[in-house]
Design brief:
The protein is of the alpha/beta class and 638 residues long. The chain has 14 helices and 35 strands. The chain has a seven-stranded mixed sheet with strand order 1-18-17-2-5-6-7. Strands 9-10-12-13-16-15-14 form a seven-stranded mixed sheet. A five-stranded mixed sheet has the order 26-21-30-24-31, sandwiched between helices. β15 and β16 form a beta hairpin. About 3% of the residues have low confidence.
Amino acid sequence: MGKLSDRDWPGQFSDQRVTLALRLLETTDLHGQARGYDYFNDRPAPRRGLAALASEIAQARSEAPNCLLFDCGDFLQGTPLTQLWSEPCKIAGSHDGENPMIAAMNALGYDAAALGNHEFDFGIGPLVQALEAAKFPTLCANLRASIGTPIRPWAMLERNLLDSHGIERTLRIAVIGVLPPPSLAWLETRPGAELSTSSLLEATEAQLQLIRASGADLVIALAHTGISPLPPGDEASQDPENSAERAALAVARLDGVDVVLAGHDHHGFPDATRPAFAGIDPVLGTLHGKPALNAGARGTHLGVLDLVLEQTQDGWKLAAHRAELRPAQQEAGPDSAAVLAASEPAHRRTLDHIRRPIGTTADPLHSYFTQIAPDRTLALISAAKRRYARERLAGRPEADLPLLGAASSFKSGGAAGSAHFIDIPPGPLRMSHVDDIYLFNNTVGAVELNGAELRDWLEQAASIYNQQHPDGQFRMLCDLTFASYHFDVISGITYEIDLSQPPRFRPDGSLRPAAPGRIRDLRHEGARISNSDRFIVVSNDFRLSGGGGFKRRGRPVPIDPEPVLVRDLLLEEIDAQVGPLHLDAPPIWRFSPLPGARALYHTGPGAAAYLCELEQAGLRASSGPVDANGFLPLEISL
């Protein structure tokens, strides 16, 4: 199958051949960004969101009469706009009308959408209510529900399209949705869970047999999973289900799939700056030779995939393609009036909610240095969790064990970009600040574990770093194939991280061979921790159930019969303060000294105002100019 150039499209084939040009448009990981508004900082966010992307969608449609629009999941969660609709008890009237994201997608005429893992964050009830209003099929093939839902494994779209001779043809286009089971492991553990997932690949293969038997001319996989190579010669990583968070390559390998539209990892594809791997061509935009897209996240880009199908004796066959990502541009036109109107009532209610005062802080709360120095936001999260667990465990045998708190940052740059940081100045605190610090609907949970399991947990968290060498050469400190939330900091202990050693874990949670470990000098109240020492660690249900590829460790310790949101605990912690919030960020961990090693850490440009904090933490760092991607590079001497 060839790739089309601009001059070839759409007439590169001779008049004697019957061809049909079809354009596929993709959005993915919109995360509740219906409008170009930053609800966390209460300010407009130009060229972001579905309303801004609508002009690009309209332009792309005007260029190709045969056009379909799809979404690859994670559209319902991510901003207070959709959070409030799904939690009607939070504010009066928030549940009125359609979900604002569904209303926006209806206004733009989507043809189908796959479900992502975050569609399920609010529970099955609000999800079903939101999807029942969708005027397009919502798909997931590897999900089982014990109650009735509008969710289907796949849908057959019959479209009358014009061929190269101007003759109308009926094309049967099958669209199947899949998501990575590891992302929903936490949901299956919740009390009264009505959902379960199965193997992404096995479910897809089973449905493909039905799809082909139904006479599909073209099969499109809406795969809410990322694009990543499998390391050669490593048997553990060759199991696609081990790497289900980034299994789009494995989906493309399946017989019967013609096109893969991916998502989940927020990495755009095609991307000429990405290296090529076996089966992945980031320039042509193919996976195992099949056309593929990933439009990134939050409506900053529209995926455009042009296909040429040729009529043969055996039916329509893919003959050529062209893939590109188009950024949302202000010059393309104003934000969609239809999308703005559909979400306006919810937008007004959300502004009232996020502006509600909840207290004050004497210290800045930011996440610019989460992976290199003490972080007050993590200290706040851990303090809230530990206070709550301490109250619930009082009088029980577990109360005699040391109580530790695990927390990670959801907003500390990385692949999400240079603006993806928390930055709350001293002064008034509003509801939006709590939403900013804790984005997700995780509930609090606890486990009892021993010293060996605690060390193993820290080893997995410390695998986010690249190995460093004392040769004076600059190396990237963090491995950006890990998400920022992989880095758990556990309060109540102290430890060192030795970056001279290779990481023990991969991003999917599998072990690397022959990695001795990085955690050094692990102590509790000054005493070294032995493998047999016992602890209670309070965390969240996502982490404790294996979310993000983390191993399930220890024995679950029930602390409340009803799920309690971590976000609500933060509100209680702030409300319990007398006067302004004063937060110490204790020096829980540090890097082991490695003279001669020099690392590059990329943070947000706002970090320049807080560089003195690094000096107070004993870290030698100097900043360079902001780079082309908007990051502030810090040169760190280990």
